[in-house]
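Attaching the record inline, Q. Sequence:
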Amino acid sequence: MQRSKEEQLQARAYAIWEREGCPEGKDRENWELAIKEMEGQSPPQVDKGPWRTPQESAAS
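Structure, as predicted:
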């Protein structure tokens, strides 16, 4: 069963919220970022701090 665009946006915004560490009060930002990602626009670059994934470390 195919999900509606609204359901896809909800799922994407939720995934962004989880990825960001479940911060409170960023509902609107997460929703707008989900829209941009689904429309194929580049999301804004986020400072990841000094932490890197093993894949990022290997690419350096």
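Residues 14 and 30 are 8 Å apart (CA to CA). The two ends are 42 Å apart (CA to CA).

More tomorrow.
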